[in-house]
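pinging the channel bc i need a second pair of eyes. not urgent but kinda urgent?? the chain im working w is below, pasted from the shared doc
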Amino acid sequence: MKNFIAAVIMLISFESCSQRTSNETLTEFRKTDSERIIATHYLKSYQHSHKEALVGDFLSKLWFNFGETKDYGYDGYTYAIEHIPTGIVFSAYNGSAGPSFGGFEKDKESLSEILNKFELLLKQSNYADCELTFNTDYGELSVGAKNGTPFEKSAE
């Protein structure tokens, strides 16, 4: 019985710590003005968790943490994100190369660790119900999530 109680306490403690880490990570990032990311360039692709709808997966997790984006157009959408402790800004976007991150060359070394932390935040995030429709070379594409399931579909 003693071992059982100790195991339950450890499990509760672990769960509490896990939740706290996710919340602490979220407070390190905020959405910022898109003008701050003009002239950023591709740094790395998003390591998605939903293979059948990776564009919807990415959008839904960004939307869950930072709300709707108003920055979308041909081929996708963009979120301008600031890492608060360092002031470094980067882009989380979907473009012709798929879900990706961009940044400034001068920040490239620091961004490696920052983007790893940001991807962990997204991995731990829920899917927000959302939808965006934009044009691509292949016609209109609708992406997002509904009832916790990401989707991508050609618009009719």
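so Residues 2-154 form one domain. and The longest helix spans residues 2-26. — does that match what u expected or am i reading it wrong
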